[in-house]
């Protein structure tokens, strides 16, 4: 069974990876032609909304005391799954050939 610190560390590492990718996407969007820029910006915004929701769930787990944090992991895991979907969709847009 994973403890709270390990759980949060794993989430933070993944979040850091996704934030690094998002910074690349934002730069690509800034350099894109107007028609493509609109689509890129939509993808970045969708990802940011999911990220913000996932971070809110993370904050709830972080502030939970005792074993209560384990009850909150379902919400985090659901938010993380939605964030992964948004990431995959944005990634496909930014790296399509």
Description:
- With 97 residues, the protein is mainly alpha-helical.
- It has one domain.
- It contains three helices and no strands.
- It has helices at residues 4-31, 34-63, 68-94.
- Helix 2 packs antiparallel against helix 3.
- The mean pLDDT is 87.
What attributes does this structure have?
97 residues; mainly alpha; 3 helices; 0% strand
Itemize the secondary structure elements and their pairings.
Layout: H1 4-31, H2 34-63, H3 68-94
Helix pairs in contact: 1-2, 1-3, 2-3
By helix and strand content, what is the structural category?
mainly alpha
Instruction: Extract low-pLDDT stretches.
Output: none
Q: Note the gap between the termini.
A: 42 Å
Q: Spell out the helices and strands N to C.
A: HHH
The coarse silhouette is: elongated
In short:
The protein has about 100 residues and is an all-alpha fold. About 90% of the residues lie in helices and about 0% in strands.
């Amino acid at each position: 069974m994973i403890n709270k610190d390990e759980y949060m560390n794993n989430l933070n590492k993944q979040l850091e990876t996704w934030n690094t990718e998002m910074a690349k996407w934002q730069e690509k969007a800034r350099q894109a032609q107007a028609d493509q820029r609109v689509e890129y910006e939509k993808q970045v915004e969708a990802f940011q909304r999911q990220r913000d929701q996932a971070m809110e769930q993370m904050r709830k787990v972080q502030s939970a005391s005792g074993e209560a944090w384990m009850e909150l992991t379902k919400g985090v895991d659901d938010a993380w799954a939605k964030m992964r979907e948004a990431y995959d969709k944005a990634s496909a847009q930014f790296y399509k050939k």
